Amino acid sequence: MRQQLKPHPEIIVAPSLLAADFGFFRRECERVDRSGTPWLHLDIMDGHFVPNLSFGSDVVNALRPHTNLFFDVHLMCSKPDILLQSFATSGADSITIHVELGRRVEDLIWQIRSLKKKVGLAINPPTHIEDVEPYLDKVDLLLIMTVNPGFGGQSFIEETLPKIQQVSRWKSERQLPLRIQVDGGINERTGALCAREGADTFVSGSHLFRQRNMKLAVRRLRIACEEAACYGQSLQASEGTFQDTLL
Ligand code: DX5
Ligand code: ZN
Fold this sequence. Notes:
The chain is an alpha/beta fold.
């Protein structure tokens, strides 16, 4: 029997503030606002978990009154426990921590939840995808890093695509209300590759911020990802039909 095509979840483009002009954060934030996209991705780096520093919760707090964008905070930090409260009160809407923190992950997820924020879990390119499996029903978003974290402007790592496919399989088998986010080297071509495998949330830094017309760039990226997501779904459905005829 032919499988029904389920409507894919809304595709979200999340420009990453790391690629903005640091001298004009407020203006850059308003530029993202005007682009019509609903999310802003905020990369927090501690100089320890990753070899770079970015900005802290004071910056998030200062930007909060100027926009209604959903603040998607990505903590690349060794000790997120000491930061959660301040990011929660500064206006984060979701907080993502890394699975590489090991045994502390479960407790951190619980802490973010108790702060009434959406919970994200991120995985770096060298980490096995099986490491996130125990947490899939406890988080709202799974962030698959498509570069090694620490710096914007790096090239997309194609070897991360099977991870997206695996998480997408788990998501549909278990009917999980999970967003699958990708982050690093995302443009129209690489975003489409990820969307085809099941990603629905696309962080993009240097590609979007270097455009003069961000609104157009966001729209183009979203359409490229939507088309690829539809194509990925129709491929899955026809594989289903093929398997049905074998049974
Ligand atoms: C990398 C960050 C990314 C980065 C993406 O450590 O987590 O969010 O800003 O930037 P681009 O799109 O430039 O790779
Ligand atoms: Zn990020």
